[in-house]
Structures are given as structure tokens and as C-alpha cells.
Amino acid sequence: MVIVSACLLGVECRYDGKSKPNDELTARLAGDGIVPVCPEQLGGLTTPRPPAQIVGGDGEDVLDGKAKVVNRDGVDVTENYIRGAEQVLKLAQKLGITRAYLKSNSPACGFGMIRRGEDLVEGKGVCAALLHRNGIEVICV
Predict the structure, then answer these.
(1) Which letter, b or e, does each residue of 33-58 get, where b requires 16 or more Cβ atoms within 10 Å of its Cβ?
(2) Nearest of 41, 6, 3 to residue 20 by alpha carbon
(3) Cα 33-37-42 angle, rounded to 5 deg
(4) What average pLDDT does range 11-18 have in this prediction?
(5) Proportion of the chain above pLDDT 70, given as a percent
(6) Is the pLDDT of residue 3 over 90?
(7) What is the tens place of the pLDDT at every residue in 19-66?
(8) By the 8 A CB rule, do 96 and 36 touch?
(9) Is 128 helix (H, G, I), strand (E, B) or coil?
(10) Given the DSSP bridges, would you call strands 52-55 and 34-37 parallel, antiparallel or unpaired?
């Protein structure tokens, strides 16, 4: 079984109420048990929602209390992002999942690069960082 960002499977759960379906990934994982997740929704955020970004670092820093996640309206949504990441980790641990395919550039799911405003910067999203810390292989798509 693998975890997959739900938006990559065509679920309209992104901040803008849309999805980013990746048919190649879906075909490659056919036959595997796929557990679709949206950490932002699992953390209690609505869809659609104002876009957010990590301020003061990346997901590792958010988990360490050194950075926060703030949406476009200036609302601190850090706790939602942490709660959602914890729920995804709980699912992975309960189901014995060791690999996650997550949406690139996201403040929740990005791994390697995340979006800060219009720029891409090095870093991990909050969920990706928590999964990685707990030994789950994160593959960004």
C-alpha cells in the first residue's frame, strides 16, 4: 500500500477547489493499494481555501516550532497543517505504509522544493517533513 496526495488522483481538494490529476502515476500504481490523503483537509481546512505558505523556514522548522504556515489573508493555519500531517502519519503507521507519493511544491506535501509566493525555494512541506522524519519514503510528483 502507498499514500498518494488525493489531488494527484483527481480529487478536487486543492486550495483552489481543483485537482492536479497525474494519470501516469495512477497507471503506475494500478494494482497497489492506494490511500488518498489531503493533509490540509485532514487538518480541518475547507476547500476551497486561501492559499498558504510557510514563513520563516520549511516544514521541518514548522514541526520544530521555528516557523509557521500563514494563508494569503494573514491567518495562521500552522495547527491545521500539523494536525493534518499527524493524521496522515497515523494512517501510514496503522496500515504499515512505507512510501508516499505527494504533490510537489505544496506547503503540506512538497519535498525538495516548496512554493513561497511566486518563487520555488528549497525545503519540505509540513506533512512531507513529518513522514520523512518517521522513516516513510517521500516521492514528490
Answers:
(1) ebbebbbbbbbebebebeebbbeeeb
(2) 6
(3) 145
(4) 98
(5) 100
(6) yes
(7) 999 999 999 998 889 999 999 999 999 999 999 999 999 999 999 999
(8) no
(9) helix
(10) unpaired
Q: What is the rounded distance in angstroms from the CA atom of residue 32 to the CA atom of residue 80?
A: 29
Task: Identify any residues that bridge with 105 across adjacent strands, giving them in sequence order.
Answer: 114
Measure the N-to-C terminal CA separation of the chain; round to a whole number of Å. Answer: 17
Could you give the CA distance from residue 56 to residue 78 in angstroms, rounded to a whole number?
12
The Cα angle at residue 130 between residues 55 and 107, in degrees rounded to 5? 35
pTM of the complete model beyond 0.90:
yes
Q: Are the C-beta atoms of residues 116 and 72 closer than 8 Å to each other?
A: no
State the pairing for strand pair 2-5/34-37: parallel
Largest alpha-carbon pair distance within the chain?
A: 42
Q: What's the grid cell of residue 49?
A: 481555501
Domain ranges of the chain: 2-140
- For residue 91 the three cell numbers come to 494512517
Strand partners, 120: 115
How confident is the prediction for the chain on average, in pLDDT? Answer: 97
